[in-house]
Amino acid sequence: MDQAAPAGEQLLRTLTALASPHRLRIVAALAEGRSYVSQLARQLGMNRPLLYMHLQRLEAAGLVVGELETARDGSSVKYFEVVPFALALTPELVAEAVATLEAAQPAGTATGENGPAAGGSGEDTST
Amino acid sequence: MDQAAPAGEQLLRTLTALASPHRLRIVAALAEGRSYVSQLARQLGMNRPLLYMHLQRLEAAGLVVGELETARDGSSVKYFEVVPFALALTPELVAEAVATLEAAQPAGTATGENGPAAGGSGEDTST
DNA sequence: TCGGGGTGTCAGTCTTTCCTGACAGGGGGT
DNA sequence: ACCCCCTGTCAGGAAAGACTGACACCCCGA
After folding, report:
1. CA-to-CA separations, B120 to A33, A68, A101, B107, B112, in angstroms, rounded
2. How far B99 CA sits from the closest chain A CA (Å)?
3. Which CA-bearing residue is nearest the C1' of C28?
4. How far lies B39's CA from each of A62, A94, B74, B81, in Å?
5. Does B106 touch chain A (CB under 8 A)?
6. What is the per-residue pLDDT for B74?
7. pLDDT tens-place string over residues B56-92
8. I need a labelling partner for A79 at 20 to 30 A (CA). Which of A21, A92, A106, B59 fits?
9. Do B94 and A30 touch (CB under 8 A)?
10. Cα gap A25→A21, rounded to integer Å
11. How far apart are CA A42 and CA A32, in angstroms?
């Protein structure tokens, strides 16, 4: 319930996480079903360390989650699956989110000239 | 509707355009009302050339539009305003968009073989 | 013991992007 | 004339991100 991260920062994190062809492809691949790092690397044709980095970026943004499972044969396999996120993006939503950013960073004048109605507004997700 | 560019590429363009604090702020500022370059630069506290670049990036992504107006006194002023875009972002949407990307790039074996769907994500209205 | 998957991390490159200062104009008010 | 405001573009430096190869480590099967 608590919005630990400011909406603006979270939005930025999500956007930067998705703003990459590789990461987009990873999300797409994961949307079809979970997979583990090495296999995903083969499937997408990229180096494991690289994939690892992108995967971590996505996970940091909360778009995917990884879980290290230990198979019965003892081998460790880290499965990733996509988080069913739902982000709506409109100019107004962006304005609201950015408002929380500016609040955190007092930029000399700029702040508060027009009365941004921006109320509580539960942005993101939902239906 | 505009379906000129492949969904995947357009999506990527939009995401990369928004994945920047500056550009996010620009969109937010423009969402409150149109403005012209120099004024916007003052308002946001950034260099004009820099703002110019970001503005062009946003315009290239189709998120804002600029129009060079000639005031009655002859001075040229380039007004920008935000385009009322509305982007919904979910894993499935991403998968669909990426599919159009992969279509352009022959990808060997893509079919997943994972059994456990695990997901159980609540998919609902995708209106 | 050896070979074969898997994970996790590192140092180092290399490309891309961001950002700044300065410039060339256009036009008007005093 | 001078000064002010605006647009548009450039070269060049600084920072960030992407990418690679190699390494240490684990556990199993032959």
Report:
1. 11, 20, 34, 27, 17
2. 8
3. B73
4. 37, 20, 18, 13
5. no
6. 81
7. 999 999 999 999 998 778 889 999 999 999 999 999 9
8. A21
9. no
10. 6
11. 16
